[in-house]
Amino acid sequence: MNILKSPIISCSRRTDIPAFLMDWVVQQIKIGYVDVVNPFNRNQISRISLKPEDVKCWVWWSKNFKDWIKTFNETENLFRMYKGHSFQFTINSPSELENNVKISLENRFQQLEWLINEFGLLAVNFRFDPIILYKKHNSKIIKSNLDKFEYIIKNISALGLKEMIFSFATIYEKVKTRMNARGYTPIDPPIERKKEILTKMIEICSNYDIKMNACCQPDLIKINGVEQAHCIDAYRIEKIVGGQIPKIRDTGQRKDCGCFRAKDIGGYTGIFRCKHNCDYCYASPAKK
Known about the structure:
Layout: E1 3-4, E2 8-11, H1 17-20, H2 22-31, E3 33-38, E4 41-49, E5 57-62, H3 66-74, H4 76-79, E6 84-90, H5 105-119, E7 124-131, E8 133-136, E9 143-144, H6 149-158, E10 163-168, H7 173-181, E11 184-187, H8 191-207, E12 211-214, E13 227-228, H9 234-241, E14 263-264
């Protein structure tokens, strides 16, 4: 089997590998490659090199970096073989839609501080993602996961971060099915309502000197300084690793995605089925 090489490894948009699968990551690094199943064609398998001479930077996506930090401390030499690590850290308000996210905001702020101290501000992206509006069945009250937004912004600002990434939840059919099975009705607000919500968020962020960047939200770009997010940013990664990264846009993502090309090594099923099992998740196939 041919081995594909990528200077950037994404780990992972598809599931929370840092929270649940760090033993697997260490095993694959030691092997030197990973076989990745195409989520849209399970007969198509790609073998991707994880050798340090082929990989310049790992991009880690998680809601809980506790196990990642533990694994790094136990096997630091293994991770230091790579020139760079970048972190996409999602911190939302605690919510009844995230019952399996078993970690306090305060502990997540501590993890965030550790990552910043160890790898620098440039290596860490904070995400409030997604913003979700919903109702409980038999209720007219519209709820959201924005109740702790200012508290979170205040704390990430105190750590020196100057940017954040956000998106509104995309209400796919499987999201509707799952949330309805769990007693909730997801709401996809009209664009004018999204702009109203965003205006309030921008005001809060401005008070703490935080700039907002939108992930796959083309209708919200340029509103009061909101810019396109580049979650995997070749220019930023170049600064982290001290070397050139190809400036190729990732056409394998949603058409409004601003990311540069990387190889994602995660999956949706089997060992990759995410244990967070959030009600609004676009990735997990679980219905109940």
